[in-house]
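Preliminary data (for renewal application), magnesium ion complex.
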Amino acid sequence: MSQEDKPLHFIRQIISDDVSEGKNEGKVLTRFPPEPNGYLHIGHAKSICLNFGVAKEFGGVTNLRFDDTNPDTENVEYVKSIQEDVKWLGFEWNGEPLFASQYFDKMHQFSIELIKQGKAYVCDLSMDELRAYRGTPTEPGRESPYMGRSIDENIDLFQRMKNGEFPDGSKTLRARIDMASPNMHMRDPALYRIKHSNHYRTGNDWCIYPMYDYAHCLEDSIECITHSICTLEFEVHRPLYDWVLESLDVFPSRQYEFARLNLGYTVMSKRKLLQLAEEGHVSGWDDPRMPTISGLRRRGYTPESIRNFCEVIGVTKFNSLTDIALLEHCVRDHLNKVTHRTMAVLDPIKVVITNYPEGQVEELDAVNNPEDESAGTRKVPFTRELYIERSDFMEDPPRKFFRLGIGREVRFRWAYFLTCHDVVKDAEGEIIEIHCTYDPLTKGGDAPDGRKVKGTIHWVSAEKSITAEVRLYDRLFTVEKPDAGKDKDFKEFLNPDSLQVIEARIEPHLAKVAEPGYRCQFERTGYFCADPDSSPSKLVFNRTVPLRDSWGKVKNK
Ligand code: ATP
Ligand code: MG
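Predicted structure:
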């Protein structure tokens, strides 16, 4: 999609207005702020494309900031994978990656300032008591018995919290706002909690850690982020975001919310993805069935197709469920343009051409990509014995079956017209060989007498083809919303048949070109990608997506 065709969604509109009004001197600085507690998923891709996309469009840049304020779940493996994924998606962040933990000192200073202004106090209520005091959406909360502490006492207690004098959970630093506020987030929210944990970057320097709502707005403000774009569930947190920044009179970053991506037949919460990876329901975070960026990459998705998907789904203020068929449509659309075609037989049955000389090998010309002439041609070996798909043959086919059957003539792609006249069966009556004759005058796939055939099928040489392990994937879950069930665990909906491993016969030239990551179309069966497990001695392919495009049938939700 070109720049001009892009729909002017509401975030673009806001930024466009701000720039033309000269707000922030016309500068645009966005950020992508993942917490390094898991691998990125397709939902994050939406946020990445939006943040990096709009900044670039308006001459700005985007910070990559790790929101690492919870030491218990974060680590460097995630930091590394996130950087790799953002780069792979095709985005370049502004300068070095940034870390919220770099700002712990500043955040601590800001808290002291809030205490001095009488806007924060140390509270001794336990987590359970805090919850009880908070009230409900319809009932106001109750004021903390510790709210009346003097500024000096608060400063002293907060210092001692920092010094490690108190156990986890025994005290919090709270904002003093309004326990009767209709917005629960404004009822004296906790700003700091005590946590004697080792942080992967700051080690044991800290035993108090800032809460998300307090930390995030300060991170934005410290970096002078002009437009802090986040998902809709943070809309109710915005008054607190603004309250903190206004109280401290610091750079006034502004928060804007958009609807998160939800995809059918999958889960997107990192906590749930972690369970799938750790409990062995999949082979890891990058299992090709996972909705993670690394899983999609391994499956054969291209960065272009993911970016295009994010463009197509758009940016709105309404939560909805996106059909996975749209994502598949986007990857097909791109792979159709860029991949070479090749022939592979996934479920082989042997064809013997009774009038073809034994031992003869013809190297036939095959077009690599009918969509792209510059992709050229390749040679495909044709021999007396071939393999075709079992499903491309019926002994006694109905009239509408245009593939091979006894007495039927079909085109073998790039080769000849073949007519079947007999089959050989084993003792159980299973067909083991299909006997055909070929018409030598139809070389290349056309008859000089102009006669037509209804079907064209793919094939490989029995003798010259090579074997490959092929991994076929189905949806990871059997229901569209696996995490919607109130009293059911999402794992109860795992699809037991989401992976099928088969042995296929493929064109021999693939042995030379199919490095891990190599993508191609196996004619008529789908787009495939060589897996990192693949080696010259054992090729392994993942099916990215079958060929049939079901998008046409999908209803707009
Ligand atoms: P989880 O709730 O699974 O832990 P998260 O939202 O906490 O995910 P973060 O690492 O905090 O994950 O997310 C980084 C950024 O990506 C945030 O700005 C968040 O709003 C955005 N994001 C996360 N999930 C989605 C999604 N499904 N669609 C769009 N944006 C998302
Ligand atoms: Mg989060």
